[in-house]
Each structure stands twice: as structure tokens, then as C-alpha cells.
Specification:
single chain, 262 residues, alpha+beta, elongated
């Protein structure tokens, strides 16, 4: 027989205070975090998440939960999508924390090192505020596509905007001096320097190099393997129908004429 337990006044008061605090901050914690997970759309190479200090390999269709640390190896690459259609792409040698700061669901990613490409979808005709944090920068977006690279040595952050607009602030120095980046613009944020000195507009060469590297990565993941019996990498094996036959032997020379009679 089930017994109904009624909360006492102190418990009710505590729940009301917590709910009021959530309403005032605009950051209510949902009862379920399932809708806030990210799904793996594509994956190649070594991609894993860390749970209880142990790495777990990710595959297409897996879900990444709140506060999960994503790690990619030298050949690792993954594209993930959240429920509103926004995506983030993690490139090799990267470490990224997904929604590190619940219940503030606007904190989308913490990029610790490496490179990511982020696409934030608009919510209909409304903006979709999100933030991406690095050790040296805070990037605020409403609906855009952009790249973030964090250097492993000194945690310098490079922000490159492909579409839309982002606002970049320094994560360590006073944040009063922010920068707005438009399509084709980029900004490098150093640990000990104000961002105003580092404004870099339209670095086309770097964008071209990134595009070439991405294309090479895509081709590498789609290239079929070679070798095996009768495969593309074999020469003259079983089932090889393209082997060229050897040339015919040369004709037999005619016999020598008889010696003249003396």
C-alpha cells in the first residue's frame, strides 16, 4: 500500500523560494535535460566523451549530455546537432564542454582547446541568444555561423565570422571594450592584451586555408579503402580483368642461304 507523504511547511517554503529565484533570474531548470542534449550526426576518427574520468567512444546517433567533455584525436571529427537545429562541428585535437553551466542554457559551449565551427539557428523571426566561452574570450551570438580556434600553448582565441554577427569580449580583462564582428571579419584575443589592438578585418588567406583543410578532411573520410584480392590496389590478382596480355614472341628468322659452290 502506497503512503502519501505531505511536505512540511519548511519544505514548501524552500521550494517556493527556489522557484522564485529561478523566475527572477530567467533560468529555470527544466525537469528533464533530454531536450538539451546534442546528437552526433556525423563522426570519423577518434571522438569520445569523458564520464567518471573514463573516455567513451562516440558513434553516429549517440547523444552528448549536459556537462559532457568532448575530446577528438588527431584524426577525430564530429558534427553534432541540438533540438533547435543549431549545430557545432568539432575538429581534430580539440577539447569542448557541452552546456557546462546549467541552468543557464544560453552558455552553449566551452572551447578549451582546438577548433570548432558553430551554427546557431534563428527561432523563427526571433533571435536565439547563445554564448560560447574560451579561456580568453566570451562570444555572444543570436543566429550566425562562425569558427573559434583556441591555441594550445597560450590559449589565444581566434574568432572568424562566416555569416551573421557576433560580439566578442575579453574573458579576463575588463569587458567594457567589446567588438562586433560581421561576415568576413575575424578577431584574435590574447590573454594579456585588450582586444581593440587585435581587430583583423577580412583575412581572406586564412579563410581559404581553412576551406582547403576542411575539404581535405571531407575527402579523407569519404575515400574508399584500397587493397585486397582483385581490388583497386592489386595488380594482376584473381578477378583482374584489366590485365594486359604479354606481347607475342618475335617471328623465327629464315634459314641461312647455302654456301656458294666453287
Amino acid at each position: 500500500m502506497l503512503r502519501v507523504v505531505y511536505p512540511n511547511r519548511l519544505t514548501v517554503l524552500s521550494l517556493l523560494v527556489a522557484a522564485a529565484a529561478g523566475v527572477c533570474s530567467g533560468q529555470l531548470v527544466p525537469f528533464s535535460t533530454t531536450d538539451y542534449a546534442a546528437k552526433v550526426i556525423t563522426q570519423t576518427g577518434q571522438v569520445s566523451i569523458v564520464k567518471d574520468t573514463q573516455p567513451w567512444a562516440l558513434s553516429v546517433g549517440d547523444s552528448v549530455q549536459v556537462r559532457d567533455l568532448i575530446i577528438t584525436g588527431v584524426d577525430g571529427h564530429a558534427l553534432l546537432q541540438v533540438s533547435d537545429g543549431s549545430t557545432f562541428e568539432v575538429f581534430p585535437n580539440s577539447r569542448v564542454v557541452f552546456r557546462k553551466n546549467p541552468p543557464n542554457w544560453r552558455d552553449f559551449l566551452d572551447v578549451l582547446v582546438g577548433r570548432v565551427r558553430i551554427h546557431i539557428e534563428h527561432l523563427g523571426n526571433m533571435p536565439n541568444p547563445n554564448r560560447v566561452l574560451t579561456p580568453t574570450a566570451v562570444i555572444s551570438v543570436r543566429g550566425t555561423t562562425f569558427d573559434i580556434s583556441v591555441d594550445d600553448d597560450d590559449e589565444t582565441t581566434l574568432v572568424e565570422v562566416e555569416d551573421g554577427q557576433v560580439e566578442v569580449q575579453h574573458a579576463l580583462l575588463p569587458r567594457g571594450n567589446s567588438k562586433i564582428l560581421n561576415p568576413g571579419e575575424s578577431l584574435r584575443v590574447y590573454r594579456n592584451e585588450p582586444i581593440a589592438r587585435n581587430f583583423d578585418k577580412g583575412n581572406l588567406a586564412r579563410r581559404v586555408l581553412h576551406s582547403m583543410a576542411d575539404a581535405a578532411l571531407t575527402m579523407a573520410t569519404r575515400m574508399p579503402s584500397s587493397g585486397g584480392v582483385g581490388g583497386a590496389g592489386s595488380t594482376g590478382g584473381v578477378g583482374d580483368t584489366t590485365k594486359v596480355p604479354p606481347p607475342p614472341p618475335p617471328p623465327t628468322p629464315p634459314p641461312a642461304p647455302p654456301a656458294p659452290t666453287i
